[in-house]
Amino acid sequence: MRSALLATVLTACFLLGCGSPNTDKLIVGSWQNVQTPNHPPVIYRADGTYSVTIPHPVAAGASLLLTGEYELSDGVLTTTGKDLKVVSGGPVADSFRGSIARDLLKTQKTSITWVTKDELVGEAQGKKVTFRRVGKVGS
């Protein structure tokens, strides 16, 4: 269970990137992992920050908010998790935070292949994940 959750969280947190200056701005918006459509999307902002709400894998209603910074260069997205806060769920979510913080509050890199301007595939640690745009920030 923990490894499945971490795979989902890690791919969500360090996805999206591209190499061309003309496509770098395409990342700005909300992106949904197609393998976990019931989870909240990752939101990338034009100011180089991102956020994602991470639901607890078992305890309904318990969740965390991961925020951080990202940079795109040469087809690689580098993300650095900066903060992981309990959104809801009290002690259950706080325990969850403690178990995954080490994996999320660090710098990670993902190679990106754009399928279309609204779909991309990220690859990291031998795993590929497809994301689709579900909205632009501010829309």
Describe the fold and architecture.
The protein is an alpha+beta fold and 139 residues long. It has a single domain, classed as Lipocalin (Beta Barrel). 19% of the residues lie in helices and 46% in strands. The protein has two helices and eight strands. It has an eight-stranded antiparallel beta barrel with strand order 1-2-3-4-5-6-7-8. β3 and β4 form a beta hairpin. The N and C termini lie far apart (34 Å).
Provide mean pLDDT, rounded: 84
Strand arrangement within the widest β-sheet reads 1-2-3-4-5-6-7-8
For the largest beta-sheet, the strand count, sense and barrel status come to:
8 strands, antiparallel, barrel
Annotation, overall tally of beta strands: 8
Shape: globular
Pick out the low-confidence regions: 1-22
Along the chain, the helix and strand elements come as: HEEEEEHEEE
Q: Alpha-carbon distance between the termini? A: 34 Å
Write down the domain tally.
Answer: 1
Radius of gyration: 14 Å
The helix/strand class is alpha+beta
Just give the CATH class. Mainly Beta
Estimate percent helicity: 10-25%
Separate helix tally: 2
Strand content: over 45%
At CATH level 3, the topology is Lipocalin
